[in-house]
Specification:
It holds the Pfam family Peptidase_M1_N. The chain is of the alpha+beta class and 867 residues long. Among the domains are: 21-113 and 125-200, tricorn interacting facor f3 domain (Immunoglobulin-like, Sandwich), CATH 2.60.40.1730; 320-538, Neutral Protease, domain 2. A hairpin with a 5-residue loop joins strand 2 (25-35) and strand 3. The longest helix is centred in the middle third of the chain and has 34 residues, at 387-420. It binds O-methyl-L-tyrosine (0A1) and zinc ion.
């Protein structure tokens, strides 16, 4: 039986890093026997348990939301008096120092809407155990520092579940007399329970192989539902590239005979790195040119790589406790970012990663959930799979590489992998490895792991006697529980350019103080400073460079990030005052328009970069930079600027659009993708002119498109415009694609982010569309989640958007608390908004806080937001 919540509102006790204690018992071996059944599943877990410290203390196992059937030690069934059980644990009072424990449990996977533990997706069985889902399968020491060797036996109906998968290598299989069959899997690598997985169901697969540098042939399989099986090729190609890259760049090889990936439609996150059996949100596996955009293809390549790279950074070397989550996540994100940079355009990849960091991590770091990369406390671990752990964690690794150099970094990671292989370790162990392999002192650098908040760097420059002086101050705002900050050590990559564009110096400055000055002499002309090259540290830069200096960088800098950033800063000089004053400064506008014109008419060497350069700062970045956020004003001003640029530069936009051609053959090579990107950026502007001729052009592109990239771009441009046939277009798209859930996700999202007022009734209506399901996390994210990012429509001045959000969260609280908690987090920075938004959000958060039966996930977010 599934237990229901015991208290009206669940408040988890806060867990502190300082209270960490080694486990008193270890479980070196476990055998799991699953009798999988639609109605109820029986699990027999046989564990070898050994005391590792203490004496005479009881054995306390984690366990929740399942029914205990029986318990035996060394073959003898325990009586009720010999153990205690509550909603979260099982305590066996007297245990020997070494023994075999057999636990039988009964699970109801078909009722599991939380998608944690054993659940069903499209009728197939699958598991999600990170972070604490294994305790919903059996009673266990469900903590990452308890590593076990697993043998797993699965039995299921031969028709319903022809495929039976678990971790490691397959060892045996057979038929029973009763229409069931079985398979046994053995994983020789000791692993924590969060890496356990099983999949059982009716699935097809594609297969391939990879030969490792040592000559081992590995079988590669990707499983999906039969109707999706022809969409797995890109994922397979990405997997093989990832395997080669990890050998070439980190010297890491795969270590089992088989690598299985399974695509499921119902998944809380992107994917999961279970040893030898990755389970993926189908969004990050399935693609063909009709259904997936170029961005989707890139997303698949990077998530496939991310999960593969975890085999070393996470699985072979794992985390001691969940405070160390960034040990595996920050490092693995850094690894996947560099992989993607090597596979495509390094500059564009860096720009996108910085955009994402600014949109999500900077926001988080400035809100009530701000926490260090290595947090020192949490209530609900599921709430700590954050942008700070992942993205800022990756930036911290990147800075270490900058400080010790590429070769020194490789020496450090070699030492780390060799020294800690098979162990559960800490971020401290990683930093020590980098230090020891390089003879460098990272004492001050470690503050990046313990201090939260986004530092600001203030740069002042003076030029006299052929000498440029840069005075740099750093500061970091107070964050919850951390009033005062010490200065960080950080690499600041810079270059000096002459006004002619010639680079005269390139250097990495290392900041360590609150204020430091750097002098550069022998400069006959005042140079232009290319600052924070490659975004070498995750900081906010306050540096007043003149329009001319910015334009020099736009034209000449050989660092793609700085070139793009200079253009963004030029645009910010227009947009930020306009948002504040409600009107556009003509001189500032002309500067931006002229810069756009120059970009559009100059010979273009890099179309992908040009497409990025031609985009105004995102609305979310404008919000991030605002003192008191005026969401509607941001949206309206940004739209006005887009429309003016579109009208003033209609002809050059059209020329560039036409140069890209319409029906080039579908190809995923960099050149074709860059051309599509530029074409669709210019199309967006053309449609924004509001001219019927461009509506016709976009409509033609929509109908003639041979890729989803072109089709969706045209669709979006029209749906976000005043196109008179908007609704017919929306209906047409629906009729074409209603049977493809991943395409429907796009259809929902593009409508939900349309910059128009009075959208809420449409959103409510879309929720009753037959292809929408509130039980499916992708649908929730693409409709409700996307709507919350709509600065115009979500932030209605009567608060209806916020009320709608809280209604959805209340509904989701019982269905899937993890998803509910993520959704409500979007307004936990309510204090940063101007009135009336701030008060209206607060009212709705208070309404939510007063609900009975809130899950601990939601409670933590709401209570911290209102504190
Ligand atoms: N470790 C996975 C992400 C993940 C985390 C938690 C999950 O359930 C709560 C599921 C997946 C990764 O980094 O890819
Ligand atoms: Zn990960």
């Amino acid at each position: 039986m599934l237990e229901t919540d015991v208290s009206p509102t669940n408040i988890n006790p806060t867990i502190y890093l300082k209270d960490y204690q080694k486990p008193e018992f270890l479980i070196p071996e476990v055998m799991l026997d699953f009798a999988l059944n639609q109605a109820s599943t029986l699990v027999v877990a046989t564990m070898q348990v050994k005391r590792s410290s203490g004496s005479g203390t009881p054995l306390v196992l984690h366990g929740e939301k399942m029914q205990l059937v029986s318990l035996a030690i060394n073959g003898k069934t325990l009586s009720d008096a010999e153990y205690q059980i509550d909603a979260e644990s099982l305590t066996i009072l007297n245990v020997p120092d070494a023994f075999e424990l057999e636990v039988q449990t009964e699970l109801l996977p078909h009722l599991n809407t939380e998608l944690s533990g054993l659940y069903q997706s499209s009728g197939n069985f699958c598991t999600q155990c990170e972070a604490e889902g294994f305790r919903r399968i059996t009673y266990f020491l469900d903590r990452p520092d308890v590593l076990s060797v697993y043998r797993v036996r699965l039995t299921a109906d031969v028709v319903d579940c022809p495929v039976l998968l678990s971790n490691g290598n397959p060892v045996a299989s057979g038929r029973n007399d009763d229409n069931t069959h079985w398979a046994e899997w053995f994983d020789p690598h000791p692993k924590p329970s969060y890496l356990f997985a099983l999949v059982a169901g009716n699935l097809e697969h594609v297969t391939d192989h990879f030969t490792t540098a040592s000559g081992n042939k590995v079988e590669l399989n990707i499983y999906a539902q039969q109707h999706n099986i022809e969409k797995c090729d890109h994922a397979m190609a990405s997997l093989k590239k990832s395997m080669r890259w990890d050998e070439d760049v980190y010297g890491r090889e795969y270590d089992l005979d088989i690598y299985n990936i399974v695509a499921v439609d119902d998944f809380n996150m992107g994917a999961m790195e279970n040893k030898g059996l990755n389970v993926f949100n189908s969004k990050y596996v399935l693609a063909n040119q009709d259904t997936a955009t170029d961005l989707d293809y890139e997303g698949i390549e990077s998530v496939i790589a991310h999960e593969y790279f975890h085999n070393w950074s996470g699985n072979r070397v794992t985390c001691r406790d969940w405070f160390q989550l960034s040990l595996k996540e920050g490092f693995t994100v850094f690894r996947d970012q560099e992989f993607s940079a090597d596979m495509g355009s390094r500059a564009v990849k860096r720009i996108r990663d910085v955009q994402s960091l600014r949109a999500f991590q900077f926001k988080e770091d400035a809100g009530p959930m701000a926490h260090p990369v290595r947090p020192d406390s949490y209530q609900e671990i599921n709430n700590f799979y954050t942008s700070t752990i992942y993205q800022k964690g990756a930036e911290v690794i990147r800075m270490m590489r900058e400080l010790v150099g590429v070769e020194g970094f490789r020496r450090g990671t070699d030492l780390y992998f060799d020294r800690f292989d098979g162990q559960a370790v800490t971020t401290e162990d990683f930093v020590t490895s980098i230090e020891q392999a390089n003879d460098i002192d990272l004492a001050q650098f470690r503050l990046w792991y313990t201090q939260s908040g986004t530092p600001s760097i203030r740069v002042q420059q003076s030029y006299t006697d052929q000498t440029l002086t840069l005075t740099i101050q750093q500061s970091c705002p107070a964050t919850p529980g951390q009033d005062r900050k010490r200065p960080f050590q950080m690499p600041l990559c810079i270059a000096l350019l002459l006004p002619s564009g010639e680079k005269v110096l390139q250097q990495t400055l290392v900041l360590t103080e609150d204020e430091q000055s750097f002098e550069f002499s022998g400069l006959p002309e005042q140079p232009v400073v290319s600052m924070l090259r490659g975004f070498s540290a995750p900081v906010k830069l306050e540096y007043n460079q003149s329009d001319d200096e910015l334009l020099t960088l736009v034209s000449f800098d050989d660092d793609g990030f700085v070139r793009w950033e200079a253009m963004q800063r030029l645009c910010l000089k227009l947009l930020l005052p306009a948002v504040e004053n409600g009107s556009i400064n003509e001189a500032a506008y002309s500067r931006v328009r002229d810069a756009f014109l120059k970009l559009l008419t100059e010979p273009c060497h890099d179309k992908a970069m040009l497409a990025e350069m031609l985009s105004l700062p995102t609305a979310s970045y404008l919000a991030e930079l605002s003192e008191a956020i005026e969401p509607r004003q941001i949206s309206l001003i940004r739209q006005q600027c887009v429309q003016r640029l579109a009208k003033d530069l209609e002809s050059p936009f059209h020329t560039v659009y036409a140069q890209q051609g319409q029906n080039t053959d579908f190809s995923l090579d960099a050149e074709s993708m860059a051309s599509r990107s530029l074409k669709n950026r210019t199309l967006m502007y053309l449609v924004a002119t509001g001219q019927p001729a461009y509506y016709a052009l976009a409509s033609h592109q929509y109908h003639a498109a041979n890729t989803m990239t072109d089709r969706l771009s045209a669709f979006t441009a029209l749906v976000h415009s005043s196109y008179p046939d908007r609704q017919a277009l929306i209906d047409h798209f629906y009729q074409q694609w209603k049977d493809d859930p991943l395409v429907m996700d796009k259809w929902f999202a593009m409508q939900a982010i349309a910059p128009r007022d009075n959208l809420l009734p449409d959103i409510e209506q879309l929720m009753s569309n037959p292809t929408f399901s509130i039980n499916n996390p992708n649908k929730v994210r693409s409709l409700i989640g996307a709507f919350t990012s709509n600065l115009l429509a979500f932030h209605q001045q009567d608060g209806a958007g916020y009320k709608f959000l809280v209604d959805c969260v209340i509904q989701l609280n019982t269905i899937n608390p993890q998803v509910a908690a993520r959704l409500i987090s979007t307004i936990n920075n309510w204090r940063r908004y101007a009135q009336p938004y701030q008060s209206l959000m607060c009212t709705q958060l208070e309404r939510l806080a007063n609900e009975n039966g809130l899950a601990s996930d939601v409670t933590e977010i709401v209570s911290k937001a209102l504190k």
